[in-house]
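Q: Could you fold this chain for me?
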Amino acid sequence: MLIQILLVTAIVIQTIATIYALRLVRATKYNSIWILFIIGFSILSVERFVQLLIVSGQEVSGGLMAELGIVVSICLSIGVMYAHKLFKYIDRLNYQRQLWNRRILTAVLRTEEDARARFSKELHDGLGPLLSSAKMSLSALSMGEQDPARRQLIANTTTVIEEAIRSLREISNNLSPHVLSTFGLARAVRNFIDKTLSMHPVEIDFQTNLDTQRFEKDPEVILYRVICELIHNSLKHAACSHIDLSLHYEASSFTLEYRDNGRGFQPEVMMDCGMGLSNIASRINSLGGTFDLQAAPGKGMRALIRIDLLSEQPPQSLRPDVRKTKKDN
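A: Sure. Below is the predicted structure, expressed as structure tokens.
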């Protein structure tokens, strides 16, 4: 009785498997795999039905059982052998999807940089001359005989306009640094560091083997933005007093190593709520690079970025490889 129950159960399960295989014929590209499985499962169901007849006392030719077993073996074996094509097809689809996502991300970043450059040019070429003209007009007014109160008013207004011009130039340069487009990455980073040192009580040790080399626009702009974002985060959130920054180029690859002695943080938490690190990871991902982040409360942080300009590999996960720095006992 037990053997009969098991045979009936096997027939039902194999019939259900056949139905699922029929559905997969339309859902996937490699239909021959599922057709072979359909044939195999169908014959298995027939074989189990024949075994059920034998158990029930019916006479069945032994050659039939052997023939059914051979056909099942062939169908399932060939189906498994063809299955690797399906997995290769899935891997190819995943690669194409990742490559497409990377292209979209690159297009978004390029659009952002183009918008920054256009806005910077409009500020510099539009609002800048107007403020300069206002300053010249005030200078002309101050040349005549003026009472002390009026002269002081003109002087104060001139100071405000000069400050507005300086702020405008700084905003325009931050939006689209002309030093980067004119002199290259190393000069632009040094220029940013000099400005940072003039405004913040921090030591920044910058080491690089770059001189006047020029690269494609995308890696130059992205590395510059990443460095600026890292320094900005350290000064704003970490309250650090020292930063080590090294940028090296060798064999078509950039290696950027960044350290600070700030208060540190929990990488998992900051990646979930900190837009700065997410933006950095997205920018590095658009170039197919890697972003390794190590940090812990009270231990500062370390970031290691590698970008191969000749790499055609699919992009990595948008989340960097985050690790906690071990605490002292």
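A (continued): The first helix runs from residue 2 to 27.
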